Amino acid sequence: MALRVFNTLSRKKEDFVPASPEVVRIYTCGLTVYSRMHIGHARTYCFWDMFRRYLEYNGYHVMSVINYTDIDDRLMERATDSVGSIDIAERVIASFRNDCRMLRIKDYAVYTRATDFIRGQIEMVAQLIGKGHAYVVNGEVFYDVASFPGYGKLSGRTVEEQQVGASGRIGEDVSRKRNPADFTLWKPSEGGQPSWQTGHPDWPQGRPGWHIECSVMSSETLGATFDLHGGAVDNMFPHHENEIAQSEPLCGCSTWVKYWMHPEHLDLRGEKMSKSLGNVVGVPDLLERHSYDKLRWFYAMNHYRTKLAFSGELIDSAAEGYRKITNLLDILEGRLSKWEDVAEGVPARGDYASLREPEMRVPRLRHYYEYGQYGELATKFIAKFREAMDDDVNSPQATAAMFEYVNELYRGGIESADDMPSVLAAYRCLTRHLYVLGIERPNELLYPQLATDCFPVGGESDTAAQDAFIDRLVEARGQARADKDWAKADMLRDLFAQCGLEVEDTAEGARWKLKG
RNA sequence: GGCGGCGUAGCCAAGUGGUAAGGCAGAGGACUGCAAAUCCUUUAUCGACGGUUCGAUUCCGUCCGCCGCCUCCA
Fold first, then answer.
1. Is A276 within a domain?
2. CATH number of the domain that A410 lies in?
3. Are A169 and A82 contained in the same domain?
4. CA A143 to CA A136: how far, in whole Å?
């Protein structure tokens, strides 16, 4: 079975077949950088990251482009004499990059800024005018919706339908437009507003409209046509609809972009998140309460095309189940780290990390998830995981498969198994698939490629000395237990707990961890 | 006014024309000095009413409730 995705264009699940069998080209609408990324954006970009990771898992190289809209009225409104709109944009972009890294969103191949592509935008506007798709009114350029028969095909609406209830803001604008749905391609700037010279007498100066920038940036970076265009639901109309209207007549093809996908928004219990309601939560605020991996797991537990009920309690509830998985990984890491060269015990029958067709795979490393006494469980799990993800990225089902896998590993006694190569294979199988969901465990136990691919976790200090100290404390309690001095042992355990140190007694001795 | 979506156990959430994954919470049990961790057992007729069908939670219709979009928005 191969990957199928729900294509907004057809409103159906379709086989995902990129133009190249090796490369997938994706353009994602990024932020309008007038204000910082919030948790809603996080859901969207975490989804795109998971999608990208799954494509890579399948052997594709993903050329991903994301843009910053750094020319915008809201940006200009916020500008002051001392802090210009470009300053604001720079700050927001910097914090966006930082937030993405905190969320372990892999770097995009290209980050574009609308203001870096003005020349192309002017050129494209001119072409649209030349082809009769746009008209000029007092230095302002509008797209003529009526000139494009396909207008509305993405969002499934017609121009006529819209007119009835278009009550909102048909104000001063409409008189200059031929059709209320016509949108701005270029508008003149006044006063201190950012302005570019066009070289066209009818519309000599000004700035671009919102939609034209994405049409230009995507095509200049990815080519006249590309595989997939993303964003979130709110982009579907009018933004993406307008992009199609602009680009399709000029791309020299019948279909500018083959697939469109639109992840749903967050649902904050009926309250729309907005600045005015004061319920905008930034990524750092959120990560202070819930570590990134719990958040990623929470996102993965919900399907991307359904609204996500979002609250701290729901994240905690999901994290409680996730803890069972990390608990196992902690145990396995602790045991595996005591073995030298355990990887040598795994046969070198490896495949390339991806799941390309067998004849296309490159056996270069020891990737052998299905090795050893837990091999059958891995086979079953991988099949279920892939089946779920292939079906329009059904990550909730994928997480369910992972729970089943983990349960069976526990049941199979992996906590105390002696066959370390088998344990390693299972450990790698789990971490590899968590990685697809955006959860990374940088660890030398991983095979080298994945280990280097994981996000660098800067700033972590060496805790060896501290660990040794804690070991001695825990040993003291162990002695009390050996002496059957339960009062002392329990007193110490309570004391440790108060300090955030949890101790568990196992057949192999006490195990501790810092609660975080 | 137009377009679209949703309603599955206390909570979250997949899914299917043949009587419903997974997680949280709850209950009982095993293990443990006690815990913890883990394991075992256990909890739903899928918003309401009709229709199609041998059979619908899954298809169609009506209704009720919730929500999004049509205006900048991830």
1. no
2. 1.10.730
3. yes
4. 9
Å between A305 CA and B26 C1'? 31
How far, in Å, is the CA of A276 from the C1' of nucleotide B63?
36
Report the nucleotide nearest the CA of residue A402, measured to C1'.
Answer: B22
SS3 at position A67 = strand
- pLDDT tens for each residue of A369-414: 888 999 999 999 999 999 999 999 999 999 999 999 999 999 999 9
3-state secondary structure of A328: helix
- The verdict on residue A285 lying in a domain is no
Instruction: Judge if A142 and A202 occupy the same domain.
Output: yes
> Are A374 and A497 in a shared domain?
no
Cis peptide before A238 (omega within 30 of 0): yes
What's the CA–C1' distance between A40 and B4, in Å?
Answer: 21
Whether residue A197 sits in one domain with residue A109? yes
User: Which residues partner with A361 through β-bridges?
Assistant: none
In a domain, A165, yes or no: yes
Q: Measured in angstroms, what separates residue A466's CA from nucleotide B3's C1'?
A: 61
Let me know how long chain A is. 516
Smallest CA–C1' separation from A408, nucleotide? B39
Distance of CA A118 to the CA centre of its chain: 28
CATH code of the domain in which A202 resides: 3.40.50.620
Query: Could you read off the pLDDT of A121-174 as tens digits, one per residue?
Result: 999 999 999 999 999 999 999 999 999 999 999 988 876 666 544 444 444 456
- A269 nearest nt, CA–C1': B67
Q: For strand B, which nucleotides have at least one atom less than 7 Å from a protein CB?
A: 1-6, 11-15, 21-25, 32-40, 66-74
A112 sits in which H/E element: strand A110-113
The verdict on A261 and A324 lying in the same domain is no
Please provide residue A374's backbone torsions phi and psi, each rounded to the nearest 5 degrees.
-105, 10
Give nearest nucleotide to A310 (CA–C1'): B12
Round to a whole number and report the distance in Å from the CA of A249 to the C1' of B70.
25
Q: How far is the CA of A233 from the C1' of B16 (A)?
A: 27
Query: How many structural domains is chain A composed of?
Result: 3
Q: Which domain holds residue A487?
A: 464-514
Residue A135 lies inside a defined structural domain of this protein: yes
| Span A45-92, pLDDT tens digits | 999 999 999 999 988 999 999 999 999 888 988 888 888 888 999 999
Predicted-complex ipTM score: 0.96
Nearest to A393 by CA among A322, A325, A300, A307: A300
Q: How far apart are CA A266 and CA A270, in angstroms?
A: 10
| Residues facing A257 on adjacent strands | A226
Which of A400, A421, A453 is the last residue in one of the domains? A453
Q: Do A134 and A94 belong to one domain?
A: yes
Residues A416 and A480 in one domain: no
Nearest nucleotide to A35 (CA to C1') is B73
Does one domain contain both A145 and A234? yes
**A172: which DSSP letter?**
T
